[in-house]
Amino acid sequence: MLLRIAACLTAAAAAAAAQAPPGKAFGNQAAPLRIEVFSDFQCPACKNLHEGALAQVHRDYVRAGKVYLIHREFPLPMHRYAREAAAYATAAARLNRYEAVAAALFRQQAFWSNSGNVEAVVAGAVSPAEMQKLRALVRDPQTQMAIEQDIALGKQNALSQTPTMVITKGFRRYPVGGNQNYAILKRFLDDLLSK
User: Fold this and answer.
1) Which residues pair with 84 in a beta bridge?
2) Which helix (H) or strand (E) covers residue 45, if one does?
3) Could you tell me the fold of the domain covering 11-183?
């Protein structure tokens, strides 16, 4: 799959990107590259990106201090349960359990996408005490506001699909849409890092 890249620069988008949501950002904030991933938990391509290329980016670049990775929610209206899944993941971030909940939601996407039982999947990824807290946090207006802020940021970045990664180096932003082949993405990241 070809990497589609368009460089763009807007001061407003750069300022908004600087504010990472607590519990949904990983790595060194001072890393030379920042990757914001806009995804929908009910989107099959998002699942593939999360379990494929993003897992490798986390291993090879985030842990090495080269990339600061930020997860953003962009539930699409056509996906009936995506907003609920985003609410659970966003609430889980407030308990520092975003990674576990996101992985479970993507891993069991076929189950909850058909049944609508998002809560059962989340309950399997956290402790009973954490689940009790999550139920309250899902209903908290701050959780819904955080999702709305991610959606607004995605619209500001003119997202046309999920997943979309917005890769930033300095003041240059590169939107990369779709499920990417890791080898191609790696070449692009290495090229940015070498400049």
Assistant:
1) none
2) helix 44-51
3) Glutaredoxin (3.40.30)
Residue recorded with tokens 């990339």 = 67
pTM metric for this prediction: 0.88
Runs of H (alpha helix) within 64-194: 82-93, 98-107, 109-115, 118-123, 128-139, 141-156, 182-194
Q: Quick one: CA torsion of 149, 150, 153, 154, rounded to 10 degrees? A: -140
Q: In this predicted model, what pLDDT tens digit does every residue of 129-158 receive, in sequence order?
A: 999 999 999 999 999 999 999 999 999 999
How far apart (Å, rounded) are the C-alpha atoms in residues 111 and 128?
Answer: 21
Domain residue ranges of the chain, discontinuous segments joined by +: 11-183
pLDDT band for position 160 (cuts 50, 70, 90):
confident
Euclidean distance between the first and final Cα of the chain, in Å? Answer: 24
pLDDT of residue 2 exceeding 50: no
Closest CA to 85 of 129, 47, 35: 47
